[in-house]
Amino acid sequence: MRKSPTLRVLGGGALALGLVAVGATIATDSGGTDATTVSSDNAASAGAAGAADDQLTALQRDLDLSAEEATRLLDREAEARTLDSELRTELGDAFGGSRFDIDTGELTVAVTDEAAVGAVEDAGAAARVVTYGESGLAEIVDDLNSQDTELSDGVTGWYPSTDDDTVVITVLEGERSAAEKLIADAGVAEDAVKVETTTDKPRTYADIVGGDPYMIGGSGRCSIGFAVDGGFATAGHCGAVGTPVASQGGSGTGTVGGSIFPLRDMGFVEADDNWTPTNLVNDYNGGTVPVAGSEEAPEGTSVCRSGSTTGWHCGTIGAKGQTVVYPEGRVEGLTQTDVCAEPGDSGGSWISDDQAQGVTSGGSGNCSFGGVTFFQPLTPILHEWNLTLTTR
């Protein structure tokens, strides 16, 4: 099995991949159309029939795996998600984060207390003792988040690296002094952070089938994230509260009922009665992938994305808790990936096996030569508006 792709450090002029204008290209190799044309019973069984093969095909293409390797990877990742959840609960404050290795199929759990090593190893994972861990790095991120930093200062973002047990600050080339000032102003220990430079320029990627297009106020397009009771989750930058939206064909209509952007990139559309939620994500290969839950996947695991501009693409999960400085403002709590995306993919679904992970926020690059893309985790969206994910 090949090495997990190295995540390129984001930076540049962090650009949120905003909405795309109506009339722009929409991925057309999908069997999914408006959500109103998909009955939940028939679509669910049809989606389940082809979902496994379609997802395996995408993983083979994007992660350079054989069919056997892709199947084994999904099985091992499912086990790792469950083990990660169990150890997170069992270890409590000693849990320092985790990372899955797609080459070995091994889950490594960081602990901040050496006494917890035995519990990790007894559970079947590898243990690594760290100084800061997940919670300690999160505190450093919070200290940095408290500073008034803008893109013009040269700093483009920061994220906790559980691999290095440090917080990485990304800056434009020649702007290292801006990072040093941020570190000093935040009062964080210099050995707890490291500075990396980049030339990347992230931006936001602006039915009820995840990944299908929806139109915003008659002048823009984004992608559906995940169906919830009464509507769907999507990116906050796709529309302000009260903005009217509609399915691509216009048969489904709704209104933005909740939107937070910047600071977060969370959105919720309240759908009318003629727009029916399903537990499906469009795989843009003539089928759909069913959503069974929202169990969080560890860093390093594979993840696939659905969006109405570029369709279905897969890669791996990188850092969590990423802060990105977009021109529109800072967004906190994003997850970094090495999956490509383009304008119009914003709001679209991120899924690991059958577990919903989040919705597309922004990034850099494109699907011709690759890039870095960030997603807004789904759980905070569900909690913010007391939403229930549609899983059947």
From TrEMBL:
One GO MF term: serine-type endopeptidase activity
Domain called Peptidase S1A alpha-lytic prodomain: residue spans: 137-189
Active site positions, chain numbering: H237 (charge relay system), D265 (charge relay system), S346 (charge relay system)
Biological process terms in GO annotation: proteolysis
Enzyme class, first EC level, given as a word: hydrolase
Entry-linked InterPro entries: Pept_S1_alpha_lytic, Pept_S1A_streptogrisin, Peptidase_S1_PA, Peptidase_S1_PA_chymotrypsin, Streptogrisin_prodomain
UniProt family annotation: Belongs to the peptidase S1 family.
Protein name per UniProt: Streptogrisin C
Native organism: Nocardiopsis mwathae
